[in-house]
Amino acid sequence: MAYMERLLAHYTGQTRLDAETLKTLADSVEKGRTVPDRSGAAGADAAMGTGEVEVKSQSSDSFQVDEITVQPLENNITHYSGEFSHWNFSMRIKQWIEQCVNDAPDGPKTQFKEYYRPEELQSTSNTVASLSSLPPRYVADFLVHAFFNHAETSYFYVERYWLQEKLNLVYENPGALTRRDVGTMCIILIIIAIGTQYAYLDSRDERGRVPSAAAESNPFSEDTIGIMFYQQACRLVPDVITISSLESVQACLLIGLYTLPLDASGLSYVYLNLAVKLAIQNGMHRKYPGEGIDPVIRETRNRVWWTAYTTEKRIGTFHGRPVSIAASEVDAEMPADRPDIWPGEAPPNTPHMLATLQLNQALSRIAHQISLFKTFEKHEIPEGVNRLADMKAQLHNWWNSLPESTFHKDPTPTSPIFRPDMHLRLEYCGVRMFAGRPFIFPRDSARSTASSSGSPADSQVPPRTSSSNSKTHPRSILVADCVDAALTVIETCRLLRNSVGLARASYTEFSSCRAALLVIITQCLQKKTDRLREALRDGMEMLKEMSAGGESAKSEMSLIEAFERAIARLDANDDISAKESDYARFKKWEMLWKTDTPAQDAQSERSHDTSLPIPPHSSNFWRGMGGHGHASNGNHVAPGAGRQGTASLPPAMPFFGLDGSLSPMPPALDEFSAMFGNGYVPGFEGLGGGVNGNWMGL
């Protein structure tokens, strides 16, 4: 009874537990009403009425937030309770009961059958059967080296020392594997498959250069081998999902990495999303609340989570997919640079990983700000653009604050090229392009032509102030920065191509080049500059090189090639328009020549002079083969009796007068000279001479 009294006093908040109070509590349960507090009952009854006073345990200020639990199991499996879940509620009841019987040494303990993974659904032979598809050890070592050397860059997928230990186990003691090692086996297979995508980068010709994909008729025959390893890994996916361990998260993440250059917005996004969901099931998105996990496993969990979460979110942002988990639900620890905890060599490029995570957080903020434009009223849009420009300025400040000695932000063709540095630079430019490209199209619906001299930034409506302020308008700033970022991407890809080689399977390199070309194409529709043309030409060449061997990349490449052909047609039409413009200038001169009134008056005053009609000149006349501007035989042809098909000008409009002068001429000589270009001064001397005796050298 003493235990019961203590429980009731604690959970009902009643200080007195006499018979009347207990009767009131029991009645409140039966009638579904709240219990009045006996202290001050009369005042409470008068103020609120009987049965409307809440007990302290039911009041809003006694609400208790669920504490999460991340329970380590075996084989790197953890059970995450979640907040306000059925599991958490049942565990709170369990704790309550255990508190009730805590003082009774011989009281019954709360025991139950723990069940966390449906292992009975696993296949018994998949793990062992997949061993037969492994290549020889030396091939596996080469492909694993290619993976770590070229594919990992600024992210973390698996610890190298751990992988080497697992490879030793698989090749030297395969009998020690169990069905719970299915995640490990899947990781090994898919890493080997990814290695085939990057293997060509470790080949060199006799001059030490990376071979170009375009230089070979069948450049990447190893893709067939890679697909075989990928398919073997995919056969293990059902069991990988069932076991749902840390290795399961890594395996699905790596499959997403392999399919990223093949189908980023489809298959890869699904696998990345699956990796995130498996990580959530293991509580990897939350800060671990205890000390029950080995420091290496804990750091691995953090790094794998941030890689999966960031990659999935970046792909979703660039390909228009919704957010799979809100940022407010994530409080996992950021990766820490702790080389002392690793059994082997510490993972490299931790500063690059941290910078990449910060960069993608900036991308998320910018993407959220852009999404708000869908809900803005018209008068709210300028303020939204200003906020976006401020975010862009903050991004620039962050980039400038990165130490040059660590990240090598401004490489030169002669400086050593480090792929993680270049990838960070490409991702930085990618965020800048993403922030500015929504505003790159002119706001008016009029069709822009290639002959227009203004850029999209110039075509925007500037603020209603002075014209000089248009250059500092937030919209123009965003567009100008977007274009500058696109040109920087092409420059960065050139550096990669001329040094360590372009990685055709790198989503960062291919997608950055593709996005930059699309921005440059919009500029080519607006204006012509040598820098834009050169960037477009080089970018197309590099994109063709990276798209070799991949059907998805070839499809995207064909679209950009179609854009390029359309621009070429616009350029051709523009050249035709220029020729027509010259013809129009000639017709303008003709009109001036025909409508010259003073010359007509002068002709009427000189009526005693006989005007010579235009004879049917032969080609010899214009080529100087018949004298100096006159027929050599002195014969005149009657008016209208010209060569068949050749029209003669009327007598009132003579071509040459008897005095050898050109008549009539436009009185406005400046206007006349402007038609022929700068530096032309009309003169009438030597009309019968010139070059080879021809008029004006004709």
Key features?
single chain; 698 residues; mainly alpha; two-stranded antiparallel sheet; 2 strands; 52% helix; disordered C terminus
Give a short overview.
By secondary structure, the protein is an all-alpha fold. It has helices spanning 2-12, 19-31, 41-48, 86-100, 126-129, 137-151, 160-172, 182-198, 223-234, 237-243, 246-259, 264-281, 295-318, 350-371, 381-401, 404-407, 419-436, 456-459, 474-497, 507-524, 530-547, 551-594, 597-605, 619-622, 669-675; strands at residues 70-72, 78-80. Strand 1 and strand 2 (78-80) form a beta hairpin.
Task: Describe, in plain words, how this protein is organized in 3D.
With 698 residues, this protein is mostly helical. The protein folds into 4 domains: 2-62, no CATH class; 122-204 and 219-348, no CATH class; 372-577, no CATH class; 621-698, no CATH class. Helix content is 52%, strand content 1%. It has 25 helices and 2 strands. The chain has helices spanning 2-12, 19-31, 41-48, 86-100, 126-129, 137-151, 160-172, 182-198, 223-234, 237-243, 246-259, 264-281, 295-318, 350-371, 381-401, 404-407, 419-436, 456-459, 474-497, 507-524, 530-547, 551-594, 597-605, 619-622, 669-675, and strands at residues 70-72, 78-80. Strands 1-2 form a two-stranded antiparallel sheet. The longest helix is centred in the C-terminal third of the chain and has 44 residues, at 551-594. The model is unreliable at 32-57, 213-217, 445-468, 606-615 and 617-698 (pLDDT under 50).
